[in-house]
Amino acid sequence: MLFAKLNVSDIYFAELDMSLMNPGLLFSQQEDSPLCEMLGRPEFPLLSKKGDITIGGAFSIHSQISKPSLSFTDNPEPLTCSRINFREFRFAQTMIFAIEEINNSSSLLPNISLGYKIFDSCGSTLPSTRAIMGLINGQERILGKNCSGLSSVHAISHFATCACLSNRKQYPSFFRTIPSDYYQSRALAKLVKHFGWTWVGTIRSDNDYGNNGMTTFITAARQEGICVEYSEAISRTDSGEQVARVVRVIRSGSARVLVAFLAQSEMNILLEEALKQNLTGLQWVGSESWITAGHLANKRYSGMLMGSLGFTIRKTKITGLQEFLLQVNPSQDAQNNLLREFWEATFDCSFKSDLHGQSHCSGSERLQDIHNPFTDVSELRISNNVYKAVYAAAHAMHSKLKCGQTGEAVNHESCLPGFRQAVIKGKPICCFSYSAECSRCPLEYWSNKDHSRCVPKVIEFLSYGETMGVLLTAFSLFGASLTLVMSCLFCRFRHTPLVKASNSELSFLLLFSLTLCFLCSLTFIGRPSEWSCMLRHTAFGITFALCMSCVLAKTIAVVMAFKAKRPTNTIPQCSAPVQRTSVLGCTLLQVFVCVLWLTLAPPFPYKNTAYATERIVLECDLGSPIGFWAVLGYIGLLALLCLILAFLARKLPDNFNEAKFITFSMLIFTAVWVTFIPAYVSSPGKFTVAVEIFAILASSFGLFFCIFAPKCYILLLKPERNTKRHMMGRKQPKTQ
Predict the structure, then answer these.
(1) Strand locations in 179-303 (E)
(2) Which end of the chain is more exposed for a tag (fewer CB within 10 A), N or C?
(3) Do residues 394 and 109 lie in contact, with contact meaning Cβ atoms separated by under 8 Å?
């Protein structure tokens, strides 16, 4: 962990391994808070140096911690950390190296010295908490004084990878120089899938690091089609029996691939137990914490871990670090117990008189002759993250101090609505000017009139409440009413020659289909929904196919009727069943096309944000343009056949030649829909729907008036023409 305390403005920077502690323990109280005092023993740093600014860090310098008995009657015994961790000690020395490098810099924090306080977290929650509180509160016992208000603590982590820490609401001041496990876990799932391993076992550290990382892995693995046979968890504080049980589960499992999302301490415990039980034959896939650990590449573990795969943290070189590490010596601080302990563990010697079989430490031993995780700088990965974290804190403090010296004249006031604070090039972040450059609103939002905040965009669609929607609805209902009145009129005069000559069955069916054509336009009005989008185009396609089928059958009937009057013609007149079959067949073909369209790629509601930036147009996406144009093309084909046949039959002898009226109706129908295509393609927003409704209504009215208006005229106004003799073109005899 890394902290920094700026004495001048009481600002803290902290790098915390949040997977080991609760960030809620970092608190502050106002000056008017009640009296308080620090309880318990103060926590002292293992390595420290005074400076104008103190940077604090916490590392797992020791890997083993005592477990004091808790009687709940007396104060618990002090926690004792043992077994020095050379790798973590290198991290601590890397922090010191970066601080010394900054102190020698003339450009970064000039004339300001950095100090440090390094605490031992022992890789455990309680020591981590004590270390943090020790840095924030100091070592003095406070009695009868107010707890002075403390600034917020900013965390810069070099090793905390838990995806949970990416939650900016819970951890707004947490930063890190290492990627989140969210990406590593998903990458591991893709790695396993790449090699075709679809049956795996998993094991994790029983903490936030392991639990969150493994949860993300299992979710991603299932999406990749990978099955997880078992998922076990261990902690370094678990009993030997618990660890043995987990290894037995691994041995008894049928999965030969083991994904281990473990911290190094848990990995070490697992491997020792695996050696005892002779666990072999596994393909290991590991997380970044242990996959590059040098001590795991020795002969002891090579039989188990040979061929292990995983993703590593980027390694780099830090110029001058190796020379700095090799200069570490107890003589740097003769009273420092940690340096003495490090020296004794490195050279297997002792500074004490009672050697117990060990050689005596002289202090002149050479680290150059030692190769261990402390002196090995060939794989600087986490060390580089520590190095970057120190520099990140230093640069932040540099900007803050520069603002305090040169930023007083800047107007530090709130921006006007619609403006933001723009960084001045070459100046610290706190020195800014006002800029009218706006930040982009989310896709479904637009800026208000003042350009000060994002507001929801206006939703646009053709509704029943607007003028255009009301007019189109009125015309639709008016057309449907006309067809119903015409049906009643035909029913009233169904026994007259005119109605009989018009093929009353087809006429009633045509009127019914026209009623549906008028009403289907209503499905295009209103807020698009999944059902309305599918209904509007299919209803239009089927009703117009039925309408055109009826007109085609009537046209064929007219032609056949006149041809049957010729003596040389042997073709029989179309019977009613044949007409019904032709109408049904032509309509069912359109139904089949519509069903195929709805099955493969149905229309669906769609929010169109490309047409206008300030509003959202709700429309129905066709799903499959091919389906739409196939439906429209089939209607056009039927209309073309009607037009051709009616045009050929237009001069047939008869006072009431229905072919002429069908020709006129088809000309109007064709003209409307030929005009519709370019208008439909070029119309913007809701006007696209209005154009389609207009085409439906115009063609329906054209068919109705051309075919049925002449009949209505004779039935109501010229009843004397409603005779068989007049229908056949014969004159009435003169009365004497």
Answers:
(1) 199-205, 227-234, 257-261, 283-286
(2) C
(3) yes
Q: Residue for token digits 């590059």? A: 292
Q: Which residue has the tokens 């309880």?
A: 39
User: Mean pLDDT of residues grouped by 10 in the chain (736 residues)?
Assistant: 38 36 31 51 84 89 81 79 92 96 93 91 82 67 46 68 86 86 94 96 93 94 94 91 96 95 92 94 94 85 91 92 95 92 93 75 92 91 94 89 57 58 58 59 80 83 89 94 92 83 83 92 90 89 91 80 52 61 90 92 86 82 89 90 80 64 84 80 78 90 89 85 67 43
Q: Is 7 exposed, middle or buried (0-12, 13-18, 19+ CB in 10 A)?
A: exposed
Three-class SS of residue 454?
Answer: strand
Q: What is the torsion angle, in degrees rounded to the nearest 10, for the CA atoms of residue 682, residue 685, residue 690 and residue 693?
A: 80
Structure tokens at 677: 């295509």
| Exposed/middle/buried for residue 670 (C-beta within 10 Å: 0-12, 13-18, 19+) | middle
Q: How far apart are the first and last CA of the chain?
A: 126
Q: Which amino acid is at 187?
A: A
Rounded to the nearest angstrom, the gap between the alpha carbon of residue 275 and the centroid of all alpha carbons in its chain is 44
**Which residue bears the tokens 């799903």?**
623
Q: Judge whether 530 and 686 are in contact, CB under 8 Å.
A: no
Token pair recorded at residue 35: 């009296």
Q: Write out the two tokens for 342.
A: 């490090």
> In this structure, are residues 412 and 432 in contact, taking their beta carbons and an 8 Å threshold?
no
User: Residue type at 472?
Assistant: L
CB of 689 closer than 8 Å to CB of 619: yes
For residue 518, the one-letter residue type is F
Distance CA 519, CA 186 (A): 53
Long-range contacts of 478-484 (CB under 8 A, 24+ apart): 479/514, 479/517, 479/518, 479/697, 479/700, 479/701, 479/704, 480/515, 480/518, 480/519, 482/704, 483/511, 483/512, 483/514, 483/515, 483/518, 483/704, 484/515
Give the single-character DSSP code of 316: B
